[in-house]
Amino acid sequence: MKKFGFILLVLTVLPAMPGKAQQVIYANLRELLAQEGDTVTTLRVEKRSKNKILWLSGGDYRIEATDNPGLSRYLRKRCYAVRVDSALYVNCRKMQYKRYRLGRYYAPAIRIGDRVYFCAQPVGQVATSSSTRPGTPRLGGDVGNAIAASALINARVFYEINPRNGRAEFVSKAKMMSLLGDYPHLSERLQRETGEGASVMWYYLTELKRLTEEK
Predict the structure, then answer these.
(1) Does this model's pTM top 0.85?
(2) Rounded to whole angstroms, how far apart are CA atoms 158 and 199?
(3) What is the pLDDT of residue 154?
(4) By 3-state DSSP, what share of the chain in percent is helix, strand and coil, each rounded to 5?
């Protein structure tokens, strides 16, 4: 799980520069893609503990406004995304994968061109494939559900936000192959990968971002 911790660190690290961080909030996907948010100055980003994620689910980060209950309430329920310097977070309350909601709180994200990818817990069929190996017996009932939930505490995958309808789409190996169509050296490397978790996809997303920005 060291790779996963490194991913979150890279996605959320703030530049060590003097002065206040640039903080921008976005009300919806359109504002995020157009970079037309509102600048604020009182945000606090908190990394959630594993226990809180287990019992309350949702994203890895809680974002609040210091001494501003009204803005904190807006951040929880209505805000779509937040940028703090170079770190981007999307509100999981606004995210849905198929018929599954991704919970509350914020997930770290990366933007590549007009697409946004965020790192969150697997849900639905993605959760099943992420938490069990083929042929592994599964327990039913409350005990089985509890074991399955605890197994996903450290599991993360990437989702792509569809710019047309705002829904989340799982970044599978097949999906990533299509994104890397213009870069055969990366496609060949991806073919040799055996997993679809965030620790695998992070490398290809960052390389894709770098190559896209160099064009």
Answers:
(1) no
(2) 9
(3) 85
(4) 40, 25, 35
Per-residue model confidence as pLDDT tens digits over 13-65: 444 333 467 999 999 999 999 999 999 999 999 999 988 888 888 899 999 99
Spatial contact of 15 and 28, defined as CB atoms under 8 Å apart: no
Q: Which of 190, 141, 162, 127 is nearest to 33 (CA)?
A: 162
DSSP 3-state of 161:
strand
b/e 85-99 (16+ beta carbons within 10 angstroms → b): eebbbbbbbbbbbee
Helices (H), the chain: 2-12, 29-34, 50-56, 69-77, 124-131, 141-151, 173-179, 184-191, 198-214
State the Cα–Cα distance between residues 126 and 120, nearest whole angstrom: 11
Per cent of the chain over pLDDT 70 is: 80
Residue 129: exposure state from Cβ atoms within 10 A (0-12, 13-18, ≥19):
middle
Number of other CB atoms surrounding residue 184 within 10 Å: 9
Structure tokens at 85: 């310097």
pLDDT in tens, 168-192: 999 999 999 999 999 999 999 999 9
Return d(Cα 117, Cα 1) in angstroms, integer.
Answer: 20
